[in-house]
Design brief:
The chain is an alpha/beta fold. It is built from 18 helices and eleven strands. It has two domains: 172 residues, P-loop containing nucleotide triphosphate hydrolases (Rossmann fold, 3-Layer(aba) Sandwich); 122 residues, Magnesium chelatase subunit I, C-Terminal domain (Helicase, Ruva Protein, domain 3, Orthogonal Bundle), CATH 1.10.8.80. Strands 2-5-8-1-9 form a five-stranded parallel beta sheet.
Length: 368
Amino acid sequence: MSVYMDNLLSADDLIRAKDIIDKYRRAMARRIVGQEDMLDGLLMAFIAGGHILLEGAPGLAKTLAVKRLAAITGLEFKRIQFTADLLPADLTGTLIWEPDRSVFSMRKGPVFTNIVLADEINRAPAKVQSALLEAMEEYQVTIGEQTWPLPDPFFVLATQNPIEHEGTYPLPEAQLDRFLLKLRIDYPRTEDELSIVRLNQSDWEQNSGTARRAQDLPVEETALEADKIAELRNVSTRIHVDEQIERYIVSIVAATRPARDKAGYSALAGGSAKKAFYSGAETAAKTHVEGIYRYISFGASPRASIALHNCSKIRALFAGNTFVRPEDVKEAALPVLRHRLSLSYEAEADGLDADAVISRILASVPVP
């Protein structure tokens, strides 16, 4: 029997995975109204073992969602408020001299936990932001000549406010690439906002008008313990990805790179693209993609291809499928790629953001 046949998912596997996902969604929905894309994105990153950058205006429940997630997982959680006067040692910790023992001892910082909320990460200078780089990529902290491993699991969930620019420091590209996903949080729908007001009023009444907030209220149950995360991860790795879908994923990422041979991405698309070439459709698609290159200064790295491959499998799992469809790839493309593209001044002049550019690329790359 082939390895593929041995790894086929059973109906019971999918049912158990769906039960865990549904339980997680219900637990989060008790405090987070709407924002389904954000909640699914948080779960996707946990399954994939990656970090998340949350971007949205103040008051859209970014911090509340992270606190709620930490509560229902039962994992240790710490929040770091990033400010302009923060020092790297305030994150990682420092060595303390003990005169009675004549040795240095390690006083660990808040990064030594399972879930780190880096609140308003773009308010701290670059040297503080870069202090997270080793932790996010290597899952360890080095101080002096010693290295300490971080707890397992370890997740960084960072928030930033896209509205204010004064007193902020844009994240360097090297750190942005360490985030698996960038989730954009929009304003709630009118009906959702009405439910939010009523939920807040109910919490206020239940606590006799005290100032306790929703995130401080006790959690009814844990819904996503470490063993359940591991189970979802195991199931997602067994989702089948056809070779044509793999070529499609790599083609999308390759199409974001202006410096690449412009015909290079289409050669990856395989038989379907070759047929399109002879019909003239691929030539039109190639011309369309080349027209988008003026909006991109530089594109995504192979790390993006790996992330898109893994997240597409998790999207397929959310949909209850045992295989990845092109639709799964397209749904995962925006949060995976939006922070990995550096746009040109021409894109800003034409009023295009990363999502608009990625959408044009998705519309241009041939679908298998």
